[in-house]
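User: Vacuolar protein sorting-associated protein 41 homolog, Gasterosteus aculeatus aculeatus:
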Amino acid sequence: MADVEQQGRKQSEEFTDESEEEDSEDEPKLKYERLSNGVTEILQKDAASCMTVHDKFLALGTHFGKVFLLDIQGNVTQKFEISSVKINQISLDESGEHVGICSEDGKVQVFGLYTREGFHENFDCPIKVVALHPQFSRSNYKQFVTGGNKLLLYERNWLNRWKMSVLHEGEGSITNIQWRSNLIAWANNVGVKIYDIGTKQRITNVLRDNVSLRPDMYPCSLCWKDNCTLIVGWGTSIKICVVKERNPTEMRDLPSRYVEIVSAFETEFFISGLAPLADQLVTLYFVKENSDHMDEEFRARPRLDIIQPLPESCEEISSDALTVRNFQDNECRDYRLEHSEGESLFYIISPKDIVVAKERDQDDHIDWLLEKKKYEEALMAAEISFKNIKRHDVQKIGMGYINHLVEKGDYDAAARKCQKVLGKNMELWENEVYRFKTIGQLKAISQYLPRGDLRLRPAIYEMILHEFLKTDYEGFATLIREWPGELYNNMAIVQAVNDHLKRDPANRTLLTTLAELYTYDQRYDRALEIYLRLRHKDVYQLIHKHDLFSSIEDKIILLMDFDKEKAVDMLLDNEDKISTDRVVEELADRPELLHVYLHKLFKRDHHKGQKYHEKQIVLYAEYDRPNLLPFLRDSTHCPLEKALEVCQQRNFVEETVFLLSRMGNCRRALQMIMEELEDVDKAIEFAKEQDDAELWEDLISYSIDKPPFITGLLNNIGTHVDPILLIHRIKEGMEIPNLRDSLVKILQDYNLQILLREGCKKILVADSLSLLQKMHRTQMRGVRVDEENICESCHAAILPSDMAKPFSVVVFHCRHMFHKECLPSSGTVPGVQFCNICSAKKRGPRSGILELKK
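Assistant: Predicted structure for Vacuolar protein sorting-associated protein 41 homolog:
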């Protein structure tokens, strides 16, 4: 079968490659192959005159009066000697069990292929056509028609005899008959008629357009598309006729059906045959002799076109000029087009050749794409239709695409396609890698090599790494980062990198890559040394990931020199692995680094490094004075005498003032502020913090002869000290800057205090009144008393079981309830009773609010 397909493809190329003069970029719609085997031998000695197609077999008639039954491949299965002259027509019923044959000498035979019983008759004129009823095999449809000078209908009656009736005559020779369902269409010299065998009515007459053409030279082509649609081709004219039911109200004496021509148009060439293809038409053309734009040789070649009919024109979909045997000797009447409805096969019959056209399948589409070097589209088509393709293999197409890209020099695209095409075929992968090595393009394929579940031999990966190591350090580093270490022999690559480092020992790329290789090989200490040497950002990640804290105890200074913040954070986060004492010991010779560490430790926990607080005083004083005062304020373990000594040595006034005040020597601290800082605002602020009258007195005494200080005091002490005390002590005639503004401010502050007091008083009175009213409303509400309430004294139900008897109940505002007889006698205030429970809890007296009596 494969040989037949291959032969068919070669024949298709033979028909089209040498014949077509159209745009080669347009993919053909049909493919062609010559019907060979027994047909070849028949046509060498004889010539084809007609052929009929059934889904199961073919029936071929010849000029020497023979009929051959052929299989689909053209092998002869049966042979009938019918006449000595040309067979004009062969007709088969739908079942393929009966055949009708007519010949030029007037012979007509209708018989079963499995029995020779049937109809045999000789007429005195040539019989051009014969047509069996489509259901001829069924007993009640034993009918057929013949066409010569008359259209004759033969029917078998109940006596098993044939009854003849004339359906039409008088319009010349009948050249074509097509029978579909109950409709018989035939063509004569005048036009095309349709006869309804069911109603026994002729329902239409479609006239011939070009009467100048000889009907015997340019015969009419008829084809039923379905049970109601007839396609008529005659000369250069095509008409599509639809048989429709007539409205019963319009019938009168008219047939029950009528024909509507839905499409009519002219073509460029003469029509030799028609066949439907979905909603399109397949047309066999005989090229006109007066086509000036064609040379003499090409002019006589038949054309098979696919067209899309429109109401008044058509659109050409595809067109193929065919080279059939002896085409130069053929006329329009020598060609016929037959089709097999079941498989969309189209047979082009000529005297010396029979060509089969069929729709191109996905394999043919891929063939065409590959021929045009459209490998991308071919591969995509094969992947989409991989279940339907028979002759092609997706991987082979992909390999062809890769070869094509390599030939073009597009190595990156070729390598990228390897990932998709080669899949999990290790042998193909390795072959491609070696091919890329041969052409010097290992780099191109490196990033696409498999690295997951499918892996090549380690030697393959090592070969590529060595190639990169020779020419591209950055590319080598990228592969080491991207490739899992299991792909190659790690030790071999480490040795190769070390060899290159001997020639270039300071190369950062190689050193970083070597560290990564050591990391994968779990030689973390070696990797850590390289990272620290390079000051690489990944050093901290390496330490954390592989718990290398024991390896960095003697490398703390290196880590902090690289990045103090990250190093300190790491050390503090892992105090359980590297103790604070160990870090302090390592940093003893680098006090600036020690300060950074202890400062962050203090920020995290004020008590954790308390034994180093004394040392921190000096470190803060030396390296970070801005944080010294906050440290002194927050630390509860700092020796104040040592801190005071350090601050006094360095003349840190603010820190000394704080320490003196914390040690209780506030007067000395205030004196330093006034004498050394000469900052009245700070002095006033200090006095406010201490809130000591003696300090205010000292401040006033020190400031009384200093006008700027007096101004500061007048502006700020109004809310802490009576300004009159200061004003009375100001000397007569002393000039004080901004005195008026200061006095105005004192008066404004006093006025503001008065307003605040009055405002607060109003708010207090309003709130008290509101709460009193709320309490009054609450106490005035009724209290529900029912059988669930109990007496707080005797704990019996507050209401008697017999409500008819008189009773008396007392309810207090606190919601406690008593039987009147259970309450003790009135207290010191006559006529006023109090809740015993609330009085006992010292919540204040609660007078009775309600007395129920009955």
